[in-house]
Amino acid sequence: MLVPLYEAVYERLEVGTGTRLLGLGCGSGLALLMAATRGARVTGVDTDRARVDLARERLAPEPPGHGPGGHGAARPEPRLLYGSPDIAADPAGTAYNLVTALQPIGCTAGDSDGLVPSLTAAVRMAERGGAVVLTGWGPPERCATTAVFRVAGRLTERLRGRDAWRPALRDDLEEMAARAGLRPDGSGRVSCPFGYADTDSAVRGLLSTGLFDAAVRAADQATVEKEITEALHSYVRPDGTVWMPNVFRYLVARIP
């Protein structure tokens, strides 16, 4: 669903053979794969072991003759690491020139708190003037999916005693950059609609984001699935497909 966001970032920063990229919270590796096919040398780190394993499968070295553009040059071998960014230093001592945090923030209260220490650690391994990309959800009125995420916040309140959902704010990314000691250097907005073949697929897809995990703990799987299904009702089209228009925002910052 976030491919348009990744493409917009990579186009703007001209990601290619000269790029040495560190992806924070790399997840299952799709964004890294897209950068690697452009010729970038990529390292990804995540605290979810299962997703790191999937990323390793996705970015497994290609056989000779199947490299970028099909010209026979294999893409640089990726590094996929389980743990915190502190373990991601390049063995050769080469500094990164691009750090990405492409898991959007802005729908869960405090979802940026853990990212600031990760950014601080990553900046120590990057070159001065290098780019750092932060991403977030757009305004709630432009993001249909945020209405569904309110379900997670309401159910999680039972567990935490407070609403875990909050609307994305205009300066979320700038504030996080400032906390990490970064200098903003431009931003953009990208349309990323979420489309599913049917309601069941939409429920499974939304649950896979991890944003409903706390809600499941607070209630139970069946209750969460029922609440999501009801919240999706407005986005079911006559043919049964589910379509939710969203806008995401990215910020490019520089390491001083």
Structural notes for this entry:
This protein is an alpha/beta fold and 256 residues long. The protein has a domain at 3-141 and 165-193 and 247-254: Vaccinia Virus protein VP39 (Rossmann fold), CATH 3.40.50. It is built from nine helices and nine strands. It has helices spanning 3-12, 30-37, 49-58, 115-123, 145-160, 172-179, 199-207, 213-218, 221-231; strands at residues 20-24, 41-46, 79-82, 96-105, 126-137, 183-191, 194-196, 242-244, 247-254. The strands form two sheets. Strands 3-2-1-4-5-9-6 form a seven-stranded mixed beta sheet, sandwiched between helices. Strands 7-8 form a two-stranded antiparallel ribbon. Helix 4 (115-123) links the parallel strand 4 (96-105) and strand 5 (126-137). Helix 1 runs parallel beside helix 2 (30-37) and helix 5 packs antiparallel against helix 9 (221-231). The radius of gyration is 19 Å and the shape is globular. The model is unreliable at 68-72 (pLDDT under 50).
> Roughly how many Å is the radius of gyration?
19 Å
Which CATH architecture of one domain?
3-Layer(aba) Sandwich
Shape descriptor = globular
The percentage helix is 25-40%
Text of the CATH class of one domain:
Alpha Beta
Biggest sheet, open or closed, and with what strands and sense? Answer: 7 strands, mixed
Low-confidence stretches: 68-72
Strands across the major sheet, in which order? 3-2-1-4-5-9-6
Protein name: Methyltransferase type 11
Keywords: Methyltransferase, Transferase
Organism: Streptomyces kanasensis
Pfam families: Methyltransf_11
